[in-house]
TrEMBL record, chains A, B:
Name under which the protein is recorded: precorrin-2 dehydrogenase
Pathway: Porphyrin-containing compound metabolism; siroheme biosynthesis; sirohydrochlorin from precorrin-2: step 1/1
Matching Gene3D superfamilies: NAD(P)-binding Rossmann-like Domain
Catalysed reactions listed for this entry: precorrin-2 + NAD(+) = sirohydrochlorin + NADH + 2 H(+)
Entry-linked Pfam families: NAD_binding_7 (PF13241)
Keywords from the UniProt entry: NAD, Oxidoreductase, Porphyrin biosynthesis
Length: 160, 160
């Protein structure tokens, strides 16, 4: 049997809507990259654990409010235990690789923000309209997915 | 802190692109509902295990070709072990509930085809264009997500 040809069959990623409300999500790192992911995770009601020695003011503020839990220390492999979903967003490729490897061993999906191909999940470009979410994901650059998302958004909002 | 208000912030599902190539996926059931999910799972290269006493001709054919593995028996909770992602698509709500509970205990995402709210993941309405995938997911009916997907598709294909 020939291997499947993805060139005309969409992205190689399987788009799934994860019901994260009340479910444990680990975010390793608390910089600008982590921040971008945290916003939507909090919006869907995930129980977010952030593990990082330092954090942006926004992350620190959300922790202070009780919207997420911030463990102020370097991430350890055991932090992956219990997580449904993992975001590796530290500024160290080595640490991100170790987090992704720990997630892989547990069959837990992990986004590697520094090196998407070596994680087990990608974050699509998405936008929200009323109670719906539209997402675009591709095989090539995130910039291209974002451009398509924006084109769809414009097309959807054009007057008829 | 007030609970997050989802009415204007998209669906409560978090859209993720799962890289299932070579990763183990359990599909419980092998009827028409399972079939619809299997097509895309095979397209992205998942290692699919189907567990069901009976199967449609299409599923049986894919098993014969070696595109998936079909275990011809009722599903057991232990079948969830090792899976990255689970589709509960049998024709028995009790069996689907048991599969979903086993997945929940392992923190493994599970789509319940008979009762979406009691699973941990939803399948968005999606379509593929070239090497991209566009997905729509909503808070209400799958029919509405499909209608929006189709509208986007038409808008994207309209001549300028």
């Amino acid at each position: 049997m020939a291997p499947p040809d993805h060139t005309d069959s969409g992205s190689p990623a399987y788009l799934a809507g994860l019901l994260l409300r009340g479910r444990d999500v680990l975010v390793a790192g608390a910089g600008a990259v982590a921040e971008r992911r945290l916003e939507r995770l909090l919006e869907v009601g995930a129980n977010v654990r952030v593990v990082a020695p330092d954090a942006t003011a926004w992350v620190a503020g959300r922790a202070e409010e009780g919207a997420l839990v911030w463990h102020r220390r370097p991430v350890a492999e055991s932090d992956v235990d219990g997580a449904w979903y993992v975001i590796a967003a530290t500024d160290s490729p080595e640490v991100n690789a170790a987090v992704a490897a720990a997630a892989e061993a547990r069959h837990t999906f992990c986004v590697r923000c520094d090196d998407a191909r070596h994680g087990s999940a990608w974050t699509p470009a998405s936008y929200n309209v009323a109670d719906m979410t539209v997402a675009v994901i591709g095989n090539r650059s995130p910039q291209r997915s974002k451009a398509v998302r924006d084109a769809i958004h414009r097309a959807m909002e054009e007057p008829r």
